[in-house]
């Protein structure tokens, strides 16, 4: 399947209205599947109307065109034919493919949305390569990106494929981190107070810069220590802090359940219970 997993904010939802998305009551809502409109681009128009391919790789062939011309001084018409050489033309009928939009996960100020061309492709079909290229271009025109996924992938597996961009802020910028968190919507004063307290703990540990997540990781913030050690926090009250000794950018793509199941000695989970501040302090110093 050709699909794309996109993080869309409430503010940007209107840009995807042509693909059935809308913002309603502080949430992003997806409507039924639809073909992309002709205004999306060349492949959207081809999808709706079909197209001709001039076969310049083949020899030209004789063609006859007949038109009707007025007869001299009679008020009637007569057929006029002429022959010429032209390349053969392959006629492609309209595909009428639809693209479905599915909200995979609601985020702080938007949603994680999967856009998918509703046509499973089979590698064994002779048209596979042409169909794949067409679908990739169709989706890319409509939403700005397109990738290839296994047709049997679940919605949860789709959600995990999205890469996250981490923003790095310099030490001493705790206020800027709070401003970023507050600007992401649906964050009340109590949660910001908790974030401020946790930032203070990290700030005292002599880190090399704060880290902020985007998209589905918009609730995450933390600090980097050296080249590989990272401590990540979450705006939610009950979540634990995670400390990654290595490969943190890959491991943060996993769910909390998967992280716990891995029993990876380089990943440390520190619940926010009494004494957690001392536990993180000792862990950072020991590494």
In short:
The chain contains eight helices and 16 strands.
Give a verbal description of the structure.
The chain is α+β, with helices and mostly antiparallel strands. It has three domains: 2-48 and 94-160, no CATH class; 51-92, no CATH class; 167-286, no CATH class. It has eight helices and 16 strands. Strands 11-12-13-14-15-16 form a six-stranded antiparallel β-sheet, with helices on one face. A four-stranded antiparallel β-sheet has the order 8-9-1-10. A two-stranded antiparallel sheet has the order 2-3. A hairpin with a 3-residue loop joins β13 (220-225) and β14. α1 (42-49) packs across α2 (128-143) and α4 packs antiparallel against α5 (189-203). The two termini are 44 Å apart.
Furnish the topology, listing elements before pairings.
Elements: E1 2-9, E2 21-24, E3 27-30, H1 42-49, E4 51-54, E5 61-70, E6 77-86, E7 89-92, E8 99-107, E9 110-117, H2 128-143, E10 147-148, H3 155-160, E11 167-169, H4 174-182, H5 189-203, E12 210-212, E13 220-225, E14 229-234, E15 241-244, H6 248-251, H7 256-262, E16 267-270, H8 276-286
Antiparallel strand pairs: 1-9, 1-10, 2-3, 4-7, 5-6, 8-9, 11-12, 12-13, 13-14, 14-15, 15-16
């Amino acid at each position: 399947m050709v699909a794309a997993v996109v993080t869309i904010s409430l503010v940007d939802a209107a840009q995807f209205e042509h693909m059935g998305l809308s913002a309603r009551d502080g949430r992003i809502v997806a409507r039924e599947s639809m073909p992309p409109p002709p205004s999306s681009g060349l492949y959207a128009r081809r999808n709706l109307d079909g197209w001709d391919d001039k076969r310049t790789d083949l020899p030209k062939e004789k063609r006859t065109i007949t038109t009707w011309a007025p007869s001299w001084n009679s008020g009637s018409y007569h057929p006029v034919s002429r022959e010429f050489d032209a390349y053969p033309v392959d006629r492609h009928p309209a595909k009428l493919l639809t693209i479905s939009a599915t909200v995979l996960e609601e985020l702080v100020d938007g949603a994680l949305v999967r856009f998918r061309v509703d046509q499973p492709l089979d590698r064994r079909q002779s048209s596979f390569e042409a169909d794949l290229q067409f679908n990739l271009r169709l989706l890319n025109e409509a939403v700005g990106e397109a990738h290839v996924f296994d047709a049997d992938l679940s919605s949860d597996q789709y959600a995990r494929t999205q890469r996250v961009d981490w923003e790095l802020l310099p030490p001493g910028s705790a206020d800027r981190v709070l401003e970023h968190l507050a600007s992401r919507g649906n964050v009340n004063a109590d949660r910001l107070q908790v974030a401020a307290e946790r930032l203070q703990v990290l700030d005292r540990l002599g880190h090399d810069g704060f880290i902020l997540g985007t998209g589905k990781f918009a609730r995450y913030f933390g600090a980097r220590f050296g080249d590989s050690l990272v401590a990540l926090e979450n705006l939610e009250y009950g979540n634990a802090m995670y400390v990654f000794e290595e490969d943190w950018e890959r491991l943060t793509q996993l769910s909390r359940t998967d992280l716990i199941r891995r029993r990876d000695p380089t990943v440390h989970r520190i619940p926010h219970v009494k004494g957690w501040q001392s536990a993180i302090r000792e862990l950072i110093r020991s590494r």
